[in-house]
Amino acid sequence: SVDKKLTAKLQKYIKRDDFVPEKVKSVSNAAMSLCLWVRAMDVYGRVSREIEPKKLKLKDAQDTHAVAAAKLEAKKAELQQVLDKVATLEASLEAAKRKAAQLERDAEDCSV
After folding, report:
1. Which is the most buried residue in 22, 37, 45, 102, by most CB within 10 A?
2. CB–CB of 54/78 below 8 Å?
3. What is the chain's mean pLDDT, rounded?
4. Rounded-to-integer distance, Cα 49 and Cα 22, Å
5. pTM of the entire structure?
6. Angstrom distance (rounded) from CA 99 to CA 60
7. Is residue 22 within 8 Å of 35, Cβ to Cβ?
8. Residue 19 carries which DSSP code?
9. Helix, strand or coil for residue 86?
10. Under a CB-based contact definition with an 8 Å cutoff, are residues 37 and 24 in contact?
11. Are 41 and 2 in contact (CB under 8 A)?
């Protein structure tokens, strides 16, 4: 970005009524191009200083998001493990219920 001190020094020229591209062009096309460049650098410097804190906030937010996303993925993996274990336990329960029903039928057959 453009140095703040340099931008402050340029202000004495930028604020002049005769330092506008239209007026400078009457003197020289090269000077007009230089005038346009100086004015553009002034605008760039002000804008870049204005958005720098926003860039820092964005980076902080992105870093925080990355940490949260990593935690989320870890929790999703844990949840999947739990769901897999629940599915295994439910399958075992169904097998035990079927075996219990079979044993009850066998017991009825033996007692009749």
Report:
1. 45
2. no
3. 93
4. 28
5. 0.58
6. 58
7. no
8. -
9. helix
10. no
11. yes
* Gap between the Cα atoms of 107 and 95, Å rounded: 18
**Among candidate residues 24, 26, 49, 55, the one with its CA nearest the CA of residue 37:** 24
* Residue type at position 26: S
Q: Taking each helix axis from N to C terminus, what angle separates 4-14 and 29-111, rounded to the nearest 10 degrees?
A: 140
CA angle 32, 34, 35 (to 5 degrees): 60
Please state, in angstroms and as integers, the Cα–Cα distance from residue 48 to each residue in 19, 25, 29, following that order. Answer: 23, 28, 28
Tens digit of each residue's pLDDT (9 = 90 or more) over 79-103:
999 999 999 999 999 999 999 999 9
Structure confidence by residue, pLDDT tens digits, 31-43 = 999 999 999 999 9
Query: Position 88: which residue type?
Result: T
